[in-house]
Structures are given as structure tokens and as C-alpha cells.
Write a structure and sequence with these properties.
With about 250 residues, the protein is an alpha/beta fold. Helices cover about 40% and strands about 20% of the residues. The chain has nine helices and 14 strands. The strands form four sheets. It has a five-stranded mixed beta sheet. Strands 10-9-11-8-12 form a five-stranded mixed beta sheet, sandwiched between helices. The protein has a two-stranded antiparallel sheet with strand order 2-3.
């Protein structure tokens, strides 16, 4: 009888310890990023997801006491992973828009961006309006894609969509399109890493400033608060400025 009581008590104590251990085990937040948008996210030589966004979120996580795991996730369908619970966070140079706010929540902005136009050096294009009847390359589903749709119409056959902005820019070099509209960071990075390419950049004043945010499932205030707290901390202590300088200089 005594032995039975001892076993029962020991079993209860062990169960309690296991529950306590699992309660204290750090949750690993699953992060979706489309690693085809250098310098924000890309795959390095070891096929690991790397880039500005990755370094920023890792720094945020360190400040917020979070553990994060990055998974390369195709842009098309990336936001759906929040709804299914497959991913907890999306950081992938995502512009905060009123439409997107309807289906997900965003952190405070962490990057200011705008669209740029890339054309061949001999092109007569001088402004965004000049692209009205041109073949224009964009990355599918991006704000560049949306901007060109507004100019040419949603069903325009002249809008050529690619899986990534660098692919669109390579097509421009090959003569497959007459211009590319994409985020400034990506266009500038592509030109910096492809010296001697005969392309020029047009900065059209009609393009509004855009702000990138970190997305979470609608209503996940607890996670959003952690991210915002960590973001504020890395901006305050100079960590963010250091990461920014590493990728963009200045």
C-alpha cells in the first residue's frame, strides 16, 4: 500500500515537472519570407535565408525574448500561411496597405520605400506615365504590379509578371520588357551587384512613399506588442541603424 502511494505521488510529481517544463519551453515563432528579394531576403551560399529583413527580425526577437525560425515561402500565398497557422509572422518587404490591413495586422513601420522605374540607357521613358503602352516587368502581387495595373488596366497584356524583381530586371536586360517597376532597395541592389549593365533609374515623383511592416494574424495583439517593443528597442539603441548601414550605406 505504501509503495503504491509512493508510486502515485512520484507519478504526480513527475507529471507536474513535465507540465512546468513545457510551460517554460520557449515557443519558436515560425516566420515566412520569400527569399527572392535581395537585399531584403535571399538565400546565401549555404541556402540559408539571409538579408536585411532577417537581421532586423532576429534583432527584434533578441530584444523581445523570442525565438524565430525562418522558412523560404513563395510570395503567392505567403499571407495565407498566417490564417492557417502554418506561420506566425511574415516579414518579406511587405508594404502596409489599407487592403492588407483588412486581413492581417502590421507592426510599426521598419523601412521606408518607394517604387523606381528601371529602363535601358537609350530609352526615351522619362516618367511613369510614359509606360502606358510599354511592356513592363513586375513581380507578381507587389505594389509595383498594382501601380502598373492602375496605369494600364488590370487586364493589360503589356504587364509581364515574374516570380521576383531580379528576374524582371534580367528580362529587361535581355530586351523582353521595356521597363521594370519595383521597390527602390531591390532595384538599387541589383544595379550595385551587376556593374556595367546598361540600365538607368527613373525616380517619378508620382510614386508615394511606402512603409514596410511585419505582419501577424489578425487579432494577435500579444505577438504584435512583442514585435513593436523589440523594434522600438533596436531603433533606440542604434542596432537598427547599424543593420541599415550594412545593407544600404549611410
Amino acid at each position: 500500500m505504501i509503495r503504491r502511494q509512493f508510486v502515485a505521488v512520484a507519478g504526480t510529481a513527475l507529471a507536474g515537472l513535465l507540465l512546468a517544463a513545457s510551460a517554460h519551453a520557449a515557443k519558436v515563432y515560425q516566420v515566412a519570407t520569400d527569399a527572392a528579394y535581395a537585399p531584403f531576403e535571399y538565400q546565401n551560399e549555404k541556402k540559408e535565408v539571409a538579408g536585411f529583413d532577417v537581421d532586423v527580425l532576429k534583432a527584434i526577437a533578441a530584444k523581445a525574448g523570442m525565438e524565430v525560425k525562418f522558412t523560404n515561402t513563395p510570395w503567392e500565398g505567403i499571407f495565407a500561411t498566417l490564417g492557417t497557422g502554418e506561420r506566425d509572422i511574415v516579414i518579406s518587404a511587405v508594404t502596409i496597405t489599407p487592403e492588407r490591413r483588412q486581413s492581417m495586422d502590421f507592426s510599426e513601420p521598419y523601412f521606408e520605400a518607394k517604387q523606381l522605374i528601371a529602363v535601358g540607357q537609350s530609352s526615351k521613358v522619362a516618367a511613369f506615365a510614359d509606360l502606358k503602352s510599354k511592356k513592363v516587368g513586375v513581380q507578381t502581387g507587389t505594389t509595383g504590379d498594382e501601380a502598373v495595373q492602375k496605369l494600364q488596366g488590370k487586364t493589360s497584356p503589356n504587364i509581364k509578371r515574374y516570380e521576383s524583381a531580379p528576374l524582371a530586371l534580367k528580362e529587361l536586360l535581355n530586351g523582353g520588357v521595356e521597363a521594370v517597376v519595383a521597390d527602390n532597395g531591390v532595384v538599387v541592389n541589383f544595379l550595385a551587384n551587376n556593374k556595367g549593365t546598361k540600365l538607368k533609374i527613373i525616380d517619378d515623383k508620382s510614386f508615394e512613399k511606402e512603409y514596410y511592416g511585419i505582419a501577424v494574424k489578425k487579432g494577435n495583439k500579444e505577438l504584435l506588442d512583442k514585435i513593436n517593443k523589440g523594434l522600438a528597442a533596436i531603433k533606440a539603441d542604434g542596432t537598427y541603424a547599424k543593420i541599415y548601414k550594412q545593407y544600404f550605406g549611410g
